[in-house]
């Protein structure tokens, strides 16, 4: 039997996937039916909630931040905000299914970055799985470049490239997040991520 912590982790992961699918579907529907694309405004609400909730939780706790770490938080938030914005913009040129499949490009990127910067190690099966993932991505992009069917008129290689750029930025933010969480508490990290994210989104909303 799997351990209780493993079951909880898998369950939370599936819940997160469901939430991501829901927000992606909503963003796609807004564009397709109403021609509304407001990526900065959509993400601003999320970052403001993070900032308010987790800054309140960590207000009376000692902070371990220095100016160097503040810049690291800013760098994380910049990559995270831009990745989220590009993910929303991609729906102008691709479908929800293509966008979610292409987001798996972040997996090999994370493996590469974490190996180099965090000294992570991966087994042969991890590397082989990432390679299979890359083959699937290549086939999907190739299909979008040659398919001019009316049913797929919302798909294009431009949307695919935007999705890949978003996934790359997600990989950078995820690896940076792992580094920062090891140096700070989760509440402090989420509060500062929300703070910087709110500023970056608010300036461009």
UniProtKB/TrEMBL annotation:
Chief subcellular location: membrane
Q: Which InterPro entries match?
A: EmrE-like (IPR037185), SLC35_F1/F2/F6 (IPR009262), SLC35F_Transporter (IPR052221)
Query: Which UniProt keywords are listed?
Result: Membrane, Transmembrane, Transmembrane helix, Transport
Q: Does the UniProt entry include the keyword Membrane?
A: yes
Compartments in which it is found: Membrane
- Stored Pfam families: SLC35F (PF06027)
- What's the domain of life for this entry? Eukaryota
Give an example GO cellular component term for this record: membrane
Q: Where in this chain does the entry annotate a coiled-coil region?
A: none
Protein's membrane topology: Multi-pass membrane protein
One MF term from GO for this chain? transmembrane transporter activity
State the family it belongs to. Answer: Belongs to the SLC35F solute transporter family.
> What is the designated name of this protein?
EamA domain-containing protein
């Amino acid at each position: 039997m799997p351990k209780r912590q493993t079951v909880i982790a898998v369950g939370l992961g599936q819940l997160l996937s469901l939430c991501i699918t829901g927000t992606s579907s909503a963003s796609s529907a807004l564009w397709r039916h109403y021609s509304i694309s407001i990526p900065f405004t959509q993400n601003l609400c999320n970052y403001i909630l993070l900032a308010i909730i987790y800054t309140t939780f960590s207000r009376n706790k000692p902070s371990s931040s220095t100016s160097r770490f503040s810049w690291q938080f800013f760098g994380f938030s910049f990559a995270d905000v831009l990745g989220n914005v590009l993910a929303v913009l991609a729906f102008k040129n691709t479908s929800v299914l293509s966008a979610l499949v292409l987001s798996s490009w972040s997996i090999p990127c994370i493996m590469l970055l974490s190996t180099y910067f965090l000294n992570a190690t991966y087994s042969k099966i991890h590397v082989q799985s990432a390679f299979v993932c890359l083959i699937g991505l290549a086939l999907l992009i190739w299909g979008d470049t040659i398919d001019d069917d009316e049913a797929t008129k919302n798909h294009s290689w431009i949307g695919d490239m935007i999705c890949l750029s978003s996934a790359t930025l997600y990989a950078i933010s995820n690896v940076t997040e792992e580094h920062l969480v090891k140096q700070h508490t989760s509440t402090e990290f989420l509060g500062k991520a929300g703070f910087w994210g709110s500023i970056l989104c608010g300036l461009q909303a």
